[in-house]
Design goal:
Order of helices and strands: EHEHEHEHEH
CATH class: Alpha Beta
Strand order of the largest sheet: 2-1-3-4-5
CATH architecture: 3-Layer(aba) Sandwich
Helix content: 40-55%
CATH topology: Rossmann fold
Structural class: alpha/beta
Number of helices: 5
Shape: globular
Distance between the termini: 7 Å
Radius of gyration: 13 Å
Largest sheet: 5 strands, parallel
CATH superfamily: Response regulator
Number of domains: 1
Length: 124
């Protein structure tokens, strides 16, 4: 199981990666869409957790680019802004069951990761 965390808030993604590692989940992290695309060139990820608002490329557009590289990758969106427009955009793209508002509770994140992977025949 490989997870890619993408958020421009470095402290957040580092902390999430550490907390997932403690629970036996292999997670890489990056702070830009460009770095995410680069990682996806050399690594296989089963799931990606994407911030809706990251500089230069939105999380939704990044999802579309990552899907081109790995059509089986699953996605969870998160946002700290919590505006209604962000919520609508995120839930339309990923479904409300795969959308989180920051701060992210690690148990809730893992539950959503399991739900996403179970819908694809896998789990953490």
């Amino acid at each position: 199981m490989r997870v890619l965390l993408v958020d421009d808030e470095e402290e957040l993604v580092v902390t999430l990666a550490e907390r997932l590692a403690i629970r036996g989940i292999d997670a890489d992290w990056v702070t830009s869409g460009e770095d995410a695309l680069s990682k996806a060139e050399t690594q296989h990820y089963d799931l990606s957790v994407l911030d809706v608002k990251i500089p230069r490329i939105s999380g939704i557009n990044l999802k579309k680019e990552l899907e081109k590289k790995n059509p089986h990758m699953k996605f969870i969106f998160m946002t700290g802004h919590g505006s209604e427009d962000d919520y609508i955009a995120g839930t339309e793209e990923a479904g409300s069951e795969f959308y989180l508002v920051k701060p992210v509770d690690i148990r809730t994140l893992i539950e959503k990761m399991n739900t996403a992977l179970n819908s694809a025949g896998g789990s953490i």
